[in-house]
Write a structure and sequence with these properties.
The chain has 82 residues and is largely without helices or strands. 0% of the residues lie in helices and 0% in strands. The model has no long low-confidence stretch (mean pLDDT 82).
Amino acid sequence: MAIRLGNGCENCENLMENSTCKVHGVKVSSSYTCDSFEMKTALKDDRNCVTCLRYETSDCANPQKAAPQMLCSHWAPQNAMA
């Protein structure tokens, strides 16, 4: 099974403001994905310490340096679902 973080409904251009899919006509959540997925042309890119699951925890790779807007190779999204 492939993990497709970027292919959820929240990144699909078919998602309407009321969380309804305009292709399927049903309410969806952020964990949904489908074969009719169309990637939005722009994604919000908030990869920094504040949006990292490890920020201010014992798992942080750089606890003495971690700060808002800092980027590192150990970033883990806060809202990832598998």
